[in-house]
Sequence to fold (553 residues):
Amino acid sequence: MIKIPIKVLVVDDEKDFVEMLCLRLKETGEQTSFAYDGETCLDILAKSDIDVVILDIRMPGMDGIETLQKIKHDFPLVEVIMLTGHGTTETAVEGMKLGAYDYLLKPANFSELQIKLNGARNRKDEQEERIRRARTKLLLRKSGDI
Amino acid sequence: MMTEITILLVDDEAAFRQALSRRLNKRGFNVLQADSGSQCLSMLNNHSVSVIIMDVKMPEMSGIETLRQIKKKYPDKVEVILLTGQVSAQDGVTGIKIGAFDYLTKPVEIDHLAEKIKQANESIIRKEERIAENAFREKVAHQMAAAERLASLGTLATGIAHEINNPLAIINESAGFLSQILARQKMLQIPCRKEFELSIDKIITAVERAGKITHQLLGFARNGHSDYTRVDLPELIAESIDLLTHEMSNRNIDITTSFDPLSKEIMTDPFQLRQVFINLLSNANYAVGENGRISISTANHGQEVAISIQDTGPGIPANHIEKIFEPFFTTKPPNKGTGLGLFVTRNIIDKLGGSIRVDSKLNVGTTFRVVLPKCLEMQIKAFETENSATDWISHIKGESYHDKNSD
Fold:
């Protein structure tokens, strides 16, 4: 089976972390882009097709939660995995309530990340599929009316 | 009603002593007698006396000298009223300077003396109250200082943990990337492959260890979310034991449990409580040598349950007991303990509305006793946020349980 690359956007203000994580994801066949802050993240989402955003919660400027809210508002189909340095699930749970797919603690286990990335991409595919079907139904009904 | 005042009457003249003693007895005072300064001093060793009435003129040790020794030995415990002859009023003045409460000239007028005794007694009570108050203040100040130290340490530790997680994540990804590269087809035959793999493994394991520490640190400081649910206490304890069984059976450690059927179920956060049991059990496991014993028992206390974890280890020295709940206090070698286990444990228990106590005897063993509210009346849906759980706990703690449970 041919692997379909996941289009991942890594967002973290730690440049070295972003660089290494992107290298690892590329090594496993994913397509990566990156941003060091929330604003750039939103710019990239507006210009390119992204499946999953890996988003750090603690960032200077627009923080992860705020960025997440904007992503979910402007690009509801894009899935988000939160990265947190917290030992707490508190912020992560807040993120989940706002529509994040899942969260990971930093330093994260890579195979766990891969599992979650695949899950997130599958959820996005299913959502898109559902919308497609609904549109088709709508179209069919409309043509039936005619 | 006034408590009986105990007087010690010191005079070398037996007849005078007897007469005065009788008269003071009649007025409700409890009177002891001594015939000399040295007898007075030795009696003070084993009698609780509030007021001493003492003749100044005595053979051997004079009243003034006796007074000096009394004030040196018991500066705040007893008041002294001196009795002087009319010609030697100067002795009274000297006595006051040394610390006598007052002096009266012989022959004494009994009403006047009784009044002085009462005043002297009140002065002693006030002194005792002041001492108790000072001791209490000191204790509170000490506790406050310890609490503040903990709080600022907590803030500092949390900050450090956050700052360390990021570089840890970078190390983690870099080492992970290296092992991915090693897995590439064309890398399979490179020289020193084993050594590369070994080193990378070590880096990743060390990062995991460091990550555990920072998450533990952050875990205690979290103001987050407790998920309350109905918990089967024996089951939760058995689960926690299971997690450590492997290590225990290796060293032939005997672990016994005894559960009170009346405290089977409680309402609490099972994840946090399990962490408490794991922490306490691993400490017990570490403390007991080979063939040691660990026993866990629960006991029902009305609306609370007490869980005791007892070990037959060497015990905790008295000078460590105060420190064991402080962060980073550990007696284990550096790679064995973070010094955070009991600190986190106590924080969790506080949050769950309970308390923890430790009793330890050297060469006998240590018992940790955790008391938790059962919270059985609690409705799960009311606890979507941490605040409501905390509110609820303070609510039930401030109220009588019986009112709520009368049905």
About this structure: The helical segments of chain A are 15-27, 38-47, 64-74, 90-97, 110-145. Chain A touches chain B at residues 14, 16-17, 20-21, 23-24, 27-28, 58, 85-90, 93, 105-108, 110 (CB under 8 Å). The beta strands of chain A are 7-11, 31-35, 52-56, 79-84, 102-105.
